């Protein structure tokens, strides 16, 4: 006899032997007869266990009917089920769970199991503590957010589901969701949030660092005032650098933001000349910190930008020092160092920066005003370089000649290496240094002859110049240091040129 033809009493007797609700659910799915018979019993069975999976499953799939039946059967409503409904945008389920007693402002653990849920696109971490509103911010569903706000979600105290526990508005600023930011601002104003000014301040910081023009504009319109607080130095440094678009930076400046000294330094160190020019337009000279470090960075920035009138004004009219002592910066403090103490990091001398960026006329002006062309190191890309080494690195032969004319030493060292090593790949500059008295017998940092460095680089033109001045490339040390094949080749070439 087919199982469908059995009397209901016998079917119910079969069900009594099933220990788990999942087994009963599998049987109910076999045919309509079992489904009709077991449907109510199944929900009751779930209510007698602590298993929250059915409610989570129904909430994640937006099944209003299943959620209603589970709640009616006595299944305990949970915040996790509401968070899943928020994640997948089921506003009707959210309303049902709130009506059933879920505290919309409570914090709870939230996780998405990839085996249980087909769509795990919104998973931030395996398990996070969050609230309903915070979860909605991360999902970015404006419709769900409006519902939560109508139900009384707290916009001030809610935390977001990430390690840093950002408030909803900070998270929206980080995610670049301008419409959500606007919605949260309106909600906080209706609730008379006492911390709104501080919230706007921090959100402006995050939105600007994310290069989000729309969010920055909304925050400024809401009353965020960039000119009345010091935005953290690590932010805004790279705003617009990825595509050369500085609209966000311009917008901040037009609303009263003042660039920091560290931002000037970072732009200069990272080669962002166009950004540096933009920053220099808004430097607050009247309120500039009265210390040698700040002045040196501003003067060096003006030189890198090639702004001769500003350099002249700072040096001649204001009397700023071009040959300041070494200064170390750290944790916002600037202190002078005793002579001879190796600095950990310092912004360096304006002459060196101008030479590095090939600003010939700035270098010329600084030298005529008494800038010292002798070794003055700056910290650039994890090493210290002098003005002469900077000009060599920039490949500017005119600046190299200008520095040598004003007394720069062609036998100076940078980073433990003679400057001749830096010029090995530029035959023209190498010849200028030789003509100005550079010593070909100078040793490299590894105590090898200069010719070994030439062998390693494989620059035959420089080898010819050295050969013409009597350098022997057949020396065993040269061949051993440069590799046998290349050493023999250049050695034979140099010998033939002699």
TrEMBL record:
ANK repeats lie at residues 383-415. Keywords: ANK repeat, Repeat. The keyword Repeat applies. SUPFAM superfamilies: Ankyrin repeat, F-box domain. Signal peptide: none annotated. InterPro entries: Ankyrin_rpt, Ankyrin_rpt-contain_sf, F-box-like_dom_sf, F-box_dom, Multifunctional_ANK_Repeat. Residues 1-46 form the F-box domain. Pfam families: Ank_2 (PF12796), F-box (PF00646). This is Ankyrin repeat and death domain-containing protein 1A. The lineage of its organism: Eukaryota, Fungi, Dikarya, Ascomycota, Pezizomycotina.
């Amino acid at each position: 006899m087919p199982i469908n033809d059995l009397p209901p009493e016998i079917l119910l007797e079969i069900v009594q032997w099933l220990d788990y609700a999942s087994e009963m659910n599998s049987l109910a799915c076999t045919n309509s007869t079992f489904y009709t018979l077991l449907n109510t019993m199944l929900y009751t069975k779930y209510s007698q266990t602590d298993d929250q999976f059915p409610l989570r499953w129904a909430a994640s799939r937006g099944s209003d009917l299943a959620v209603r039946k589970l709640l009616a059967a006595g299944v305990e409503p949970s915040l996790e089920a509401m968070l899943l409904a928020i994640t997948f945008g089921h506003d009707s389920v959210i309303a049902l769970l709130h009506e059933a007693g879920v505290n919309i402002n409570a914090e709870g653990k939230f996780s998405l199991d990839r085996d249980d849920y087909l769509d795990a696109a919104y998973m931030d971490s395996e398990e996070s503590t969050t609230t309903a509103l915070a979860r909605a911010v991360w999902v970015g569903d404006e419709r769900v957010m409006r519902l939560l706000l109508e139900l009384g979600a707290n916009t001030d105290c809610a935390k977001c589901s990430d390690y840093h526990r950002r408030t909803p508005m900070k998270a929206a600023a980080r995610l670049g969701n301008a419409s959500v930011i606007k919605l949260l601002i309106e909600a906080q104003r209706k609730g008379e949030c006492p911390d709104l000014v501080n919230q706007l301040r921090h959100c402006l910081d995050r939105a600007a660092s994310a290069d989000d023009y729309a969010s920055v504009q909304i925050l400024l319109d809401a009353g965020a005032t960039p000119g009345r607080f010091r935005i953290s130095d690590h932010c805004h440094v790279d705003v617009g650098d990825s595509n050369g678009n500085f609209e966000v930076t311009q917008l901040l400046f037009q609303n009263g933001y003042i660039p920091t000294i560290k931002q000037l330094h970072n732009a200069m160190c990272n080669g962002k000349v166009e950004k540096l020019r933009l920053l220099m337009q808004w430097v607050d000279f009247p309120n500039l910190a009265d210390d040698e470090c700040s002045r040196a960075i501003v003067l060096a920035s003006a030189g890198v930008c090639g702004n001769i009138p500003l350099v002249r004004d700072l040096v001649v009219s204001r009397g700023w020092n071009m040959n300041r002592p070494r200064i170390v910066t750290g944790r916002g403090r600037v202190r002078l160092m005793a002579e001879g103490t190796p600095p950990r990091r310092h912004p360096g001398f304006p002459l060196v920066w101008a030479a590095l960026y090939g600003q010939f006329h700035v270098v010329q002006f600084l030298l005529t005003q008494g800038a010292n062309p002798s070794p003055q190191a700056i910290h650039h890309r994890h090493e210290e370089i002098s003005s002469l080494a900077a000009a060599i690195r920039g490949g500017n032969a005119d600046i190299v000649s200008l520095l040598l004319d004003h007394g720069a030493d062609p036998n100076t060292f940078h980073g433990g290496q003679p400057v001749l090593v830096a010029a090995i790949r530029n035959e023209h500059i190498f010849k200028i240094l030789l003509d100005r008295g550079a010593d070909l017998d100078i040793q490299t940092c590894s105590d090898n002859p200069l010719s070994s460095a030439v062998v390693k680089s494989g620059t035959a033109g420089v080898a010819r110049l050295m050969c013409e001045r009597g350098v022997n490339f057949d020396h065993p040390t040269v061949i051993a240091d440069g590799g046998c094949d290349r050493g023999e080749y250049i050695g034979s070439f140099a010998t033939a040129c002699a």
